[in-house]
Amino acid sequence: MTATASFRIDTPAGSREVSAVHERHGSGEPVVLLHGIGHHLQAWEPVTGILAAERDVVAVDLPGFGASPALPDGVPYDLPTVARTLGKLCETLGLDRPHVVGNSLGGLLALELGRQGLARTVTALSPAGFWSEGERRYAFGTLRAMRQAALAMPLPVVERAARTAAGRAALTSTIYARPARRPAAAVVAETLALRDCTGFEPTLAAGRDALFTHDVPDVPVTVAWGSRDRILLRRQGVRAKQVIPKARLIRLPGCGHVPMNDDPALVARVILDATR
Fold first, then answer.
1. What is the pLDDT, as a whole number, of residue 180?
2. Which InterPro entries would you find in this protein's record (predicted)?
3. Alpha-carbon dihedral angle through residues 172, 178, 181, 185, given to the nearest 10 degrees
């Protein structure tokens, strides 16, 4: 079920109202799913049904992405602010220290929620924030190129391309190792999500200085990395393990940057194991 939660956050300019769109499925211990930059909550669709058989699954559109409106004017998209906003969303939804799972930007946010004591466990799939400066520039350049391509393509061109395996590869092979597996309608929807998101540029601007340098000693952490990740190179997972020594580091064979589509069964198993 899709719903919108509205709540207030404290900012330097005073209390401001924020809204976030989310979908909730299943029952059991709560698991919050956070997508990456330019994406939307539907990124999790390949694994949501599997998880919902055992968990209360809440997939969230981050502020300024998907159907969630942008943060209010003057509210930064930096890591502490967005993490606090997500913490307030969880409080509004009655989720007391849920398990938090994130991909890319969502993985970085999940780790920050764990650091702030707002998560029961953290599962980070190719999380941002463990890059060298050169790797960050490469990743941001790749993301900007994807965004410019999405902005330049009329909807009929996107729809026509998505009907063929070659077209889906052209549109999404940067994030998926197996783009042909993605349904045509999903490829169209996520291309439009990348084109239309209001949070893209402010998130990239805030991310220039984003490094995760803190241990998360009191929360079980799992870090998983696709062996075919073309945006955040898998050696960054080794750095994550160095920063968070007790983290469990898992390789996802044959998976790209957004692994939920490439191997749903494997990713769901990693999440379920990590949240037990």
1. 92
2. AB_hydrolase_1, AB_hydrolase_fold
3. -10
Give the start-to-end residue ranges of the domains of the chain: 1-130+210-273
State the Cα–Cα distance between residues 46 and 268, nearest whole angstrom: 9
- β-bridge mates for residue 247, sequence order: none
| Total-model pTM | 0.97
Homologous superfamily (CATH) of 1-130+210-273 is Alpha/Beta hydrolase fold, catalytic domain (3.40.50.1820)
Which amino acid, one-letter code, is at 112?
E
Dist. CA 97–CA 121, nearest whole Å:
8
Answer whether 57's CB lies under 8 Å from 85's CB. Answer: no
What pLDDT band is residue 101 in, cutting at 50, 70 and 90? very high
Tokens encoding 195: 């084109």
Strand partners, 250: 224
Q: Which residue has the tokens 């404290």?
A: 10
DSSP label at 117? Answer: T
Q: What are phi and psi of 17, to 5 degrees?
A: -90, 135
Task: Read off the tokens for 72.
Answer: 């209010």
Q: Is 84 left (phi over 0), alpha (psi -120 to 50) or beta?
A: alpha
